[in-house]
Design a protein that fits this description.
Elements (H helix, E strand, L loop, with lengths): L1 H23 L14 H4 L1 E8 L8 E10 L5 E9 L7 E9 L7 E7 L2 E10 L5 E5 L6 E5 L6 H13 L8 E2 L25
Antiparallel strand pairs: 1-2, 1-8, 1-9, 2-3, 3-4, 4-5, 5-6, 6-7, 7-8
Length: about 200
């Protein structure tokens, strides 16, 4: 329960903060969602390898999501993360996700607590379900998910171009540290991340 509330606070702050910022600016064009998402192919583990930095995700190390089916037709999301460094304990939170009918699997809602359900939109999924781009209408938030913790530079650039085509400012994205060797490297989000522990 505690983990659920922590994850709830995180997502609420992220989404409501972005929506407030969007309301103060000109309304952007509507996002183009993925034309079709095969939900069973979304099951399993995903590494979160890039994001638009925000205060509530600051210090994330090795964030990892696992999606699985629930008996009621919704999705179970198990979220794992360390904070500040690889020597921190791995924390686990559970969230419930829904797929909006008629959206061809691309318009998700995240149930933080009843009755609140926040949008989580799939903008692109590659044919082999190796990479997924998630976003939201204000374009203040965006994420790249990958089946692998390591994303080569060419693939990362190509995925950013897909965000750019949907109106995102891709200069705002930073790669998320998934392995200790990435700490301190350019283009990675190093804020509030401790150096990797020395090898014996």
């Amino acid at each position: 329960m505690k983990g659920r509330l922590v994850r709830a606070a995180l997502l609420c702050a992220l989404v409501f903060g972005s929506l407030s910022a969007a309301a103060a600016a000109a309304r952007p064009a509507k996002l183009t969602l993925a034309p079709s998402v095969d939900i069973p192919l979304m099951y399993g583990g995903w590494y979160i390898v890039a994001t638009i930095p925000n205060s509530f995700e600051k210090g994330m190390v090795a964030p990892y999501d696992v999606y699985s089916p629930r008996s009621d037709g919704s999705l179970r999301e198990d979220f794992y993360v360390r904070r500040g460094g690889f020597d921190s304990p791995r924390r686990h939170f559970v969230v419930q996700d829904f797929v909006n009918p008629g959206s061809h699997g691309a318009h998700w809602g995240v149930r933080i607590f009843w009755p609140l359900k926040l949008p989580f939109l799939i903008l692109y999924v590659d044919p082999d379900y190796r990479y997924v781009l998630f976003g939201e209408e204000s374009r203040a938030l965006g994420w790249i998910y990958s089946r692998s913790p390591i994303l080569d530079d060419a693939t990362y650039a190509a995925l950013l171009q897909r965000f750019a085509a949907d109106g995102y400012d891709t200069r705002r994205f930073r790669r998320i540290i998934q392995v200790p060797d990435q700490i301190g490297k350019p283009s990675f989000w190093n804020d509030k991340i401790r150096p990797a522990p020395a090898k014996p």
